[in-house]
Design goal:
With 249 residues, the protein is α/β, with parallel strands linked by helices. It has one domain: Rossmann fold, CATH 3.40.50.720. Helix content is 40%, strand content 19%. It contains nine helices and 13 strands.
Length: 249
């Protein structure tokens, strides 16, 4: 089948491309790096011509709720409109576990995305997943304040991006199922431990300290409200195994 992949060069999207091609699918990559800007409605229409399904693994690097909502509002609307015009039979959208419990910052855009998909014209499947193993490296870089690296206090259950990609492709190969059960990693972790392990394995220097984020988002991160629901589908690759496999452990 012909599968269009939004965010095809991102952390999960690149893995989705590899998995889909390995399974024999005709892949269309939707990313600015490959000439398709999701915010360009005409470009999205051209890219979806002949597509049977769309996997949306797109994202934006921001902590601004306004920027996140602007991106996901426009990109999701473009995918839905173009998908309907092209006769796409299935939209598979990657979301975040319990995004509705703290719809601020980046999560604000993802919550809007879910709303648009569920009210949109295409048959859909939404896959809520926890943070990826790569999240530790991102937090290390983003939290730098001079020589110190600040890490939000958070309970998390990180999962390998490739396991998310495999699930997304499996869902695209089947009929639309609405919102499916959460996908999470094999064990609960503290974010500070993940960041320190990453820094140690990659010879990064500087103090790493835990900080409580303010507001509803910070409270949700600390309390475990962003952990998966009972009965979630669990991946198998732990964070320690992921570090080792990528040559950092």
């Amino acid at each position: 089948m012909r599968i269009a992949i939004a965010g095809a060069t991102g952390t999960v999207g690149a893995s989705v491309v590899r998995v889909a091609r390995a399974r024999g699918h005709d892949v269309v990559s939707l990313s600015r790096a490959e000439g398709v800007d999701l915010l360009d409605a005409a470009a999205v229409v051209r890219a979806l011509d002949g597509a049977d399904a769309v996997i949306d693994a797109s994202g934006i690097q921001t902590t601004s709720g306004r920027a996140s909502r602007a991106f996901f509002g426009a990109s999701t609307s473009n995918l839905l409109t173009a998908g309907e015009a092209a006769g796409v039979g299935h939209l598979v959208s990657l979301s975040i576990v319990n995004v509705d419990r703290a719809p601020s910052g980046y999560y604000a855009g993802k919550a809007l995305q879910e709303s648009l998909v569920t009210r949109g014209p295409l048959p859909y499947t939404i896959l809520p997943a926890t943070q990826f193993h790569e999240f530790a490296a991102q937090i290390y870089d983003r939290g730098r304040i001079g020589p110190v690296h600040a890490v939000p206090i958070m309970r998390t259950r990180p999962i390998a991006a490739v396991e998310v990609a495999e699930r997304l492709v499996e869902l695209a190969e089947s009929d639309a199922r609405g919102r499916v059960r959460d996908l999470a990693g094999p064990r609960e972790e503290r974010l500070i431990d993940l960041v320190r392990s990453f820094a140690s394995a990659t010879a990064r220097r500087g103090p790493i300290v835990s900080v409580p984020l303010p507001g509803a988002m910070g409270a949700a991160m600390r309390s475990g409200a962003l952990l998966p629901a009972p009965g979630a589908q669990l991946g198998t690759l732990t964070f320690a195994e992921w570090l080792h496999d990528r040559g950092d452990g």
